[in-house]
Specification:
Blueprint: E1 18-21, E2 28-33, E3 44-52, H1 56-67, E4 74-76, E5 85-93, H2 103-108, E6 112-120, E7 131-139, H3 144-157, E8 159-160, H4 173-182, H5 191-215, E9 227-230, E10 236-238, H6 244-251, E11 255-261, H7 271-281, H8 285-293, E12 299-302, E13 304-305, E14 308-315, E15 318-326, H9 331-336, E16 340-341
Parallel strand pairs: 1-16, 2-5
Antiparallel strand pairs: 1-7, 2-7, 3-5, 3-6, 4-5, 7-15, 8-13, 9-10, 9-11, 11-12, 14-15
Length: 354
């Protein structure tokens, strides 16, 4: 895996198996789950596409041309990896117009298929999905039985809910830039760059807190003052004490411990949990300053991620694993606990390009 992610601890110890991911696009399949039905009518033309070896923004630009609109009139719920086979919906704003014929669009782009079309009364916006389903082929494994043993642990106890290296840019450059911005070394006017750097800063601090809880064997253990999420309830609960009843709820999965997505407001945690979190994030004063200067609002994110619908099978020296994850969670966080990924021959990591 990336050297950037080597800054963070593994839940089950560093894997002993080496292997490859995404040798071919077909080795990384992603299917989007929007979680809602379309209205069947409206000014937005919905297109479900399957793309191979293309990034989402390229497809958006080409679809806009085919529909006779500007790129800003095409929107999506989530960006999908380039080095993969991915299925997702795009919405095209076509008020008062009939559905366009996409035959020529498909003919001119062999890496893009149109699977379905529909009409809806609202455009897609980033985040308008509940999750994604993944099928990954892990290849060139030198210790496949080690991966099988780890898969059994992951299915039972989950993985650290880390933000993946995609969030931090090539070689962690987005974090480096965020620190420099926080140190007032330059100004960032470009909206997309501002978003990248701020997201990287918050994600880095979250990963630091999570990694330190793993290191101190506190990732499954309740601290007094922890902010918890109860199953089926988005409202946080503050643990007044590290009680046996709350610990039992964490152990059986009905409650879960969270860590901070830092903002400019006070942490909701208290007592031991607040002291622990602040002791970690204060190690990055420039990132904290940047977040506060930009008036980001505090949020919480689960420490652990438990993949759903998890299945796997061994095919020779390869292992094919499939699972579903909620939106905002990274398949690479699962892979990272299974194997150490060999670098590509040119030194470029396939997962860094979306």
């Amino acid at each position: 895996m990336s050297k950037v992610m080597d800054n963070f601890n593994w839940l089950y110890g560093k894997p002993g198996c080496q292997g490859r991911l995404k040798v071919l696009p077909e080795h990384f399949i992603v299917k989007e789950n929007l979680g809602f039905e379309f209205a069947g009518a409206g000014e937005h033309f919905m297109v479900k596409i399957r793309k191979t070896g293309e990034n989402t923004k390229y497809v958006v630009n080409e679809l806009a041309k085919a529909c006779g609109v500007k790129s800003r009139d095409v929107s999506w719920a989530g960006l999908k990896d380039r080095h993969a086979v991915t299925e997702q919906w795009l919405s095209v704003h076509l008020p008062g117009k009939t559905d366009p014929d996409l035959t020529q669009f498909v003919a001119e782009h062999p890496g893009i298929e149109v699977l379905e079309t529909a009409r809806h009364d609202k455009k897609l916006r980033p985040g308008d999905l509940i999750g994604n389903w993944f099928q990954l082929r892990l290849t060139e494994l030198d210790k496949p039985q080690d991966v099988i043993a780890r898969l059994e642990q992951v299915a039972l106890k989950g993985v650290p809910n880390y933000f993946g290296e995609q969030r931090f840019g090539h070689g962690g450059n987005n974090v480096v830039k965020a620190r420099s911005w926080g140190n007032d070394e330059f100004r960032v006017r470009d909206k997309s760059k501002r978003s990248f750097y701020l997201s990287a800063a918050r994600s880095w601090l979250f990963n630091m807190v999570l990694s330190n809880r793993i290191e101190q064997e506190k990732v499954h253990t309740l601290l007094a003052g922890d902010s918890l999420l109860q199953e089926g309830d988005d409202r946080g609960v503050i643990a007044e004490s590290a009680s046996a009843d709350l610990q039992a709820a964490i152990d059986n999965g009905t409650m879960a411990i969270t860590a901070p997505m830092m903002g400019d407001n006070a942490l909701p945690t208290a007592a031991d949990a607040e002291a622990f979190e602040m002791s970690i994030v204060e190690q990055e004063p420039l990132l904290l300053k940047l977040i506060r200067d930009n008036r980001m609002r505090h949020e919480r994110r689960l420490l652990l991620l438990k993949p759903q619908q998890m299945e796997w099978q061994q095919e020779g020296e390869d292992i094919v694993v499939s699972f579903a994850l909620p939106a905002g969670c990274f398949a690479t966080a699962v892979v990272r606990e299974l194997m150490i990924e060999r670098e590509l021959e040119d030194g470029e990591h396939a997962n860094s390009d979306q």
